[in-house]
Amino acid sequence: MKVIDLLGTPLAATTYEELTEHCHELVRLGGTRAIDFTNTQIVTMRRHERSFRETTSRFDLFVPDGMPLIWTLNRRGAHLRDRVYGPTFMWHFLARSPKPFTHYLLGGSEECLAQLRARLQREHPDVQVVGSRHGYFSSADDPEILSEINTLAPDFVWVGLGTPKQQEWIHRNKTAIARGVLLAVGFAFDVNAGTKPDAPGWMQRRGLTWVFR
Predict the structure, then answer these.
(1) pTM exceeds cut of 0.85
(2) How far is CA 81 from CA 16, 19, 36, 64, in A?
């Protein structure tokens, strides 16, 4: 997988299909890895905020989630047709990662999680979600959450807490998680649950998702 440095952030020039295969391979290799779905805000924060660079220092892979990043990477020879958008990747990946793969959902409201799990059961009943926890917690709750994750030992932990909370949670806790791939996907829970609308496709293709939000 080709990696191109952009203003201090090493971005993976990848696709939905390639990243899916890579995540499956990471599970087979064992250990704990962290992947960030990176937009222009995150690249800017990493460049200008020393504390945020430290917060994101434990991520193993930064995936370009925003179209402006794709345009810039293509000027550097990436030859990408599309970004790897967190909400789209999450649904793409879940559909291609049924049993025996296991998943844990961390983030969103209780209503969001309930609707997300109901949609998964309806559309992809072979996807095995072994546990979930809503995103309204403090760092004092980390030991309880970590205990549950380590007991369940999911292959993939989906972290949808928004930036910078999701990066801070992974920075605090990655070394305490025994195994699995942690995926910081931000808005993906709400989009896939249908609890919040996403920008229409034409706005996304033109890099205008931020305007819609």
Answers:
(1) yes
(2) 11, 15, 20, 12
